[in-house]
Write a structure and sequence with these properties.
This protein is α+β, with helices and mostly antiparallel strands and 390 residues long. It is built from eleven helices and eight strands. The strands form two sheets. The protein has a four-stranded mixed sheet with strand order 1-4-5-8. Strand 2 and strand 3 form a beta hairpin. The chain starts with 6 loop residues before the first helix and ends in a 5-residue tail after the last helix. Flavin-adenine dinucleotide binds next to strand 1, strand 3 and helix 11.
Length: 390
C-alpha cells in the first residue's frame, strides 16, 4: 500500500487549494449557511459555482482530456476529494451524473454518447437523475414494472419511479425500463436516457425528515425517448445497471473519510461543551468511532493503490460502501448519545448552532439504504467476493 503522493500530485493540490480559497465566498463556510437557503436557491448557487469550477479546470479530474476532463491520476482525484472537504466547498448538484453515469458512458457508451453526455454534464448544463427504484421495486430491482413500447424510432414509456434524487431539478434521467413485453426478471430491460423536460414526464417532490426535498417521484405518461438513447444494448439494461452500480458503490472512501473526520471533531467539541468528555462511556464511544474512521482511511488508501495499479474492483466496491456507510452511521449515533436530552434543542447554552449537525445525524440514517442497503451489500460480498453458497 502506498500512502504518499507524487510531486506532481502535490503541485496539483496547491493549485486547487489556491483556486478554492479565492473562489468560495466566506459566508458559504459559515455553519448553517446552506441550511438557511431554500432548495431552489441552494441548487442554483451550487450549479453555477460548479460550472465555474469546471471552466477553471477542476472537474472530471481523472477523466480523459478529449471529453473535457483533466486527465489526472487516481491520486489527484483523492487529493481533489480531500481539498474540497477541507475548503468547505459546496456539495455537487450532479452526483448521479458525475459519479455513476459518466464512468458508465466512458466504459460502454457510443462515441456520440460520450460527446453528447460527458462535457455538458461536467459544466452542469445537464443535471442527471437515476430512475431505478419504483414503489414495487427497490432492492429487488428486477421487479420493476415501468414499460417501454417501441413506436418507430422511439420508445413510449409509462410507469413510476420513486426516491429519485434531484427529481424536481433534474434535466434528464437514466431509467431502467422493461422494453420487451412478457420478459421476466433480469431479461428484457433497457437503460433509456429520457429527457425530463417533456409533457409525458412529471416530477413531484417528497419531503424528508430534515425538511429538505432532495428526492421525489417521477411519473411517465406516454413519455417519448429515441431508441438510440439507450445506454448499452437494448434489452441488456441489467448488465449496464450492474456496471453503473459498481461505480455507485464507490471505489475509494477518501472523501468520506475526510468529511467524517471533520465531523468527528465537531461532535467531540459538543461533548466538551456539554461537559460529557470526561464520561468514560462517551470517551469509549468516541475512541471506537475514531478507530473505525482510521480503518476506513487505511482501507481507502489500499483501494486507491489497487486502482492505481489498474485492478478492477468489481463487486469488492460493496465492501467500501458497507464500511463507510456504517462508520458514518456509528459516528452520528454517538452524537445522539452525547446530546441526550439536548437532542431537541437548536442551540447549546454557549450558542453553538446544532442545526447543521442535526441535519447530518438525520442524513446518516439514509446512507445504509441508498445505493443498495447494507443487507444487500453483505449478500453481494458473501456470494460474489467470498464465494459463499447462496
Ligand atoms: C436518500 C435516498 C436517495 C435515493 N436516491 C435514489 C435515486 O436517485 N434513484 C433511485 O432509483 N433510487 C434512489 N433511492 C432508493 C434506494 O435505492 C432504495 O431505497 C433501496 O434500493 C432500497 O429499496 P427499498 O427502499 O424499496 O427497500 P426494500 O428493498 O423494500 O428493503 C426493505 C428492507 O429489506 C431488506 N432487504 C431487501 N432485500 C433483501 C435481501 N435479499 N436480503 C436481505 N435483506 C433484504 C433491505 O436491506 C431493507 O432493510 C434513494 C434512497 C434514499 C434513502
Amino acid at each position: 500500500m502506498d500512502l504518499t503522493f507524487t510531486a506532481a500530485e502535490e503541485e496539483f493540490r496547491s493549485e486547487l487549494r489556491s483556486w478554492l480559497s479565492a473562489n468560495i465566498p466566506q459566508e458559504w463556510t459559515r455553519p448553517g449557511f446552506w441550511e438557511s437557503l431554500d432548495d431552489d436557491e441552494s441548487f442554483r448557487l451550487r450549479r453555477d459555482w460548479e460550472r465555474d469550477k469546471a471552466d477553471a479546470g477542476f472537474a472530471g479530474i481523472q477523466w480523459p482530456t478529449e471529453y473535457g476532463g483533466r486527465g489526472g491520476t487516481p491520486g489527484m482525484k483523492a487529493i481533489y476529494d480531500e481539498e474540497m472537504v477541507r475548503a468547505h466547498a459546496p456539495r455537487t448538484v450532479n452526483p448521479l451524473g458525475l459519479t455513476f453515469l459518466a464512468p458508465t458512458v466512458m466504459a460502454i457508451g457510443t462515441d456520440a454518447q460520450k460527446k453528447e453526455i460527458i462535457g455538458p454534464l461536467l459544466r452542469n448544463e445537464v443535471v442527471w437523475c437515476q430512475g431505478f427504484s419504483e414503489p414495487g421495486a427497490g432492492s429487488d430491482l428486477a421487479a420493476l414494472s415501468t414499460k417501454g413500447v417501441r413506436d418507430g424510432d422511439d420508445f413510449v414509456v409509462n410507469g413510476q419511479k420513486v426516491w429519485t434524487t434531484n427529481a424536481v431539478h433534474g434535466d434528464k434521467i437514466f431509467t431502467m425500463v422493461r422494453t420487451e413485453a412478457g420478459s421476466e426478471k433480469h431479461r428484457g430491460i433497457s437503460m433509456l436516457l429520457i429527457d425530463m423536460d417533456q409533457p409525458g414526464v412529471t416530477a413531484r417532490p417528497l419531503r424528508q425528515m430534515s425538511g429538505a426535498s432532495e428526492f421525489g417521484e417521477v411519473f411517465f405518461d406516454d413519455a417519448r425517448v429515441a431508441a438510440a438513447d439507450c445506454l448499452g444494448e437494448i434489452g441488456d439494461g441489467w448488465r449496464t445497471a450492474m456496471l453503473l452500480l459498481s461505480f455507485e458503490r464507490g471505489a475509494s472512501g477518501i472523501s468520506q473519510y475526510t468529511e467524517f473526520r471533520r465531523q468527528y471533531d465537531e461532535i467531540a467539541a459538543v461533548a466538551r461543551t456539554l461537559g460529557r468528555d470526561t464520561d468514560p462511556v462517551v470517551r469509549d464511544d468516541l475512541a471506537r468511532v475514531l478507530t473505525e474512521l482510521e480503518c476506513l482511511k487505511l482501507h481507502s488508501m489500499h483501494v486507491l493503490t489497487q486502482v492505481e495499479q489498474g485492478r478492477d474492483l468489481g463487486f469488492e466496491a460493496s465492501m467500501t460502501k458497507l464500511q463507510w456507510s456504517e462508520a458514518f452511521q456509528d459516528l452520528w449515533e454517538v452524537y445522539d448519545r452525547i446530546l441526550g436530552e439536548h437532542a431537541t434543542l437548536d442551540t447549546l447554552p454557549d450558542g453553538t448552532d446544532l442545526r447543521p449537525l442535526h441535519g447530518q445525524a438525520m442524513w446518516s440514517r439514509s446512507v445504509t439504504i441508498w445505493g443498495g442497503s447494507s443487507q444487500v451489500q453483505r449478500n453481494i460480498t458473501a456470494e460474489r467476493v467470498l464465494g459463499l453458497p447462496r
